[in-house]
Each structure stands twice: as structure tokens, then as C-alpha cells.
Amino acid sequence: MTASRVLVLNSGSSSVKYQLLDMADRSRLAVGLVERIGEETSRLVHEPLTGPGAAGGQREQLGPIADHGAALRAVAAELAADGLGLDSPELAAVGHRVVHGGTKFTRPTVIDDAVLAEIRSLIPLAPLHNPANVTGIEVARELRADLPQVAVFDTAFHATIPEYAARYAIDAATADKYSIRRYGFHGTSHAYVSRATAGLLGKAPEEVNVIVLHLGNGASASAVRGGVCVETSMGLTPLEGLVMGTRSGDLDPAVVFHLARVGGLSVDEIDSLLNKKSGLLGMCGDNDMREVLRRAGEGDEAAALAFAAYVHRLKKYIGAYSAVLGRVDAVAFTAGVGENAHQVREAAVDGLAELGLALDLEANAARSPEPRLVSAEYARVAVAVVPTDEELEIATQAYALVTQ
Prior knowledge:
This protein is an alpha/beta fold and 404 residues long. The protein has 15 helices and 14 strands. It has helices spanning 68-81, 113-121, 130-143, 163-166, 172-177, 187-200, 254-261, 267-276, 279-284, 289-297, 301-325, 335-340, 342-349, 361-365, 390-402, and strands at 5-11, 16-22, 27-35, 43-48, 59-62, 91-98, 109-110, 149-153, 209-215, 219-225, 228-232, 330-334, 372-373, 382-385. It has an eight-stranded mixed β-sheet, sandwiched between helices. The chain has a six-stranded mixed β-sheet with strand order 11-10-9-12-14-13, with helices on both faces. A hairpin with an 8-residue loop joins strand 13 (372-373) and strand 14 (382-385). Helix 11 crosses helix 13 (342-349).
């Protein structure tokens, strides 16, 4: 029997998302989520998609789950109940999403003690994410010490950015000492969507230049030339770039000094303000684009301004990345907002006819879970809506590595 299954784990600070995939046919066998880990109100939602358990549909557990160890053991028990347990000889690997790989990890990597130590050393670059990623790896290694564990890094796809684009114009010795440079994030999504967009155009990734707009609560843009990322909007951290749900995106760095000197805010208070209380939330009190659109449609001025700022930033990046690429074959929208908010796509493309962009408004407004083109037939640049699939991308990369 050839082992072809990959368990994908995405461990957050208080949650674990997981999917079990069979790479023989790229099918999903089970999906699930553990949330509010460490609280009395912990919740596990598990859905088997194959086998006897699938008939019963989604299962839910409510009650305290103390830590990530308990969470992953509960996940293992749910999978075992469906005959999909971690002890299965069909399991080829566990693929772990790791947010920050620094400059060292630029491709998927089999995890050993040395690799895990390196990932720990990167925690100062991703203090909100890498600690949880490390915990997930540690527990999974305990559960199946004999199984290859593969780290797939959010930053890896962006490691191809030219040095002149990755460097900030600050003192070079200081930048090197503290590892300050553009890393970029959402890399698995940008990799998957850029390739899928090329497929929609009937071309190989090497033949296509794509601007990818990953628009969720976190949002990022990338310029992908011939399948290779050459620029991206997030930087040292996920704070830079587009207007997001709760993050400010691009900001004059002197705002930080001003808030400290004039406002008396501490470094931690400024960090919290820019990461958790800014963006759409900071401008109008809602970080859910659906609510922002509803309120703006009802004449709410704060919501309308927040939406306008969001779209304005998108247009700036589309224009800038058109200049970076020289030739653009497609602009692809993905993630929760990019896939579902047709108003965002319409507003972002509006007025960009000189860049070759125009929408088929009827196609753009129609909802569909499928990858599709929504550009006008006469448009020089295609506009695509491509549902992202980061779990499949992680599984694909992990499986390819362990079966080489």
C-alpha cells in the first residue's frame, strides 16, 4: 500500500485548523477546527468527508481543552473514529503551516531537532504566530515520532524577491544585525492562486505575469512574473501594505514616534493600535467587509470612507505592480473578501481601463465557488476570481518533498 495521505495542521495561538487529504486524487478525507484552546468554552468541530462517518455529517464537542497537546489528541481521536487515525500506514506526512521562515527557510523542509530550533529562533520576527506553530510541531512529533513532519513557510514563496526590493533603505549594518528586510506572507496562497490563474488562461505559470490580491481580514498583494514572486506588500511583519480588517497597512514610520512622544503611548500600546485596532475597524468600527458595505450602502459616512480608503490602497498597488511587471496578463482576487465581495472587485478595477482592466459586471456579480474569469471579453488584462486553497498547497508541497 502506497502512503498517500497528508495531515495539514495550522496551529494558531488558541486554535488548530486541520485537514486530511489524499494526494493520490487530491481529495479531502476530513476537515476540522479546534478553537478557544485553554478556555472553558473550547470547541472542536470535525467533519469526515469519506467513509462510514461521512453520513453523520459534522460532529461538535464543547468543553474545556487545556492546551494544544490535548487539542491534537482530540483531533487524533476524531480521525480514528472514522478509520482515518494517525496510526494509519496510509499517512505519508504531516504538513505544518509555519508563518515565518526568515532567510534560511525558502522551501518546504523536513523537521528535525535542528530545524525546530531554527524555527524557535525566528520567534522574535513572528511573536504572534511562530510560537503556536512550534507547539503544533512538537505535539505532532510526539504523537507520530516516526512520521515525516514537514514545515511549509508563509514567507518561502516570496524569497525570490530581488534584493533591491527586499531591502529597506536603512543603515545596512543595523538591518543585517536585526534581520530587517521584506519577507512577505500568505505565500502558500499566492503560490497556489498564481498557478491556478495561469491554468484559467490555458497557459503554464512560466508564461504568465499575475498580480495576486489576497483579501481577507489580513490582506496582501504580490507581483508574480513567470511563476516567480518579484514583489509583495507585506514586509518584516504582516502589518505593511494594504488596508486590512484590523491592521493599518502602509504608514509613515514617524506616526510611531509621534504617538510615543506626543501621545505618551508605550511600544506595546502602539503595536496593539496598529495591528488590532486599525484598518477598517479603526476607521469605522467594523472589520467585517460585509458590514462595512451594508453600512456604506445605508449612507454611513465612516463606513463609506473606510471602504474608499481600502479601495484606494488596492488601486495604488495594482498600478505599482503593473509598473514592476511591465506586462500584466491577469489580476487575481482571492480569500474571503476577494472571492465574495464583488463590490470590492468592481471598485478596485473601476477607472483602470488604461491599464487594460475592465469587468463583465454581470459575471463579476454572480456568485460561484469555482475559479473563473470576470473580465470583459475585450479587456487586455484578465480579471480572475480564484478561491485559495492553502491546505492543498501545503499538502502538495509536503507530499512532493517526502516522496522525492
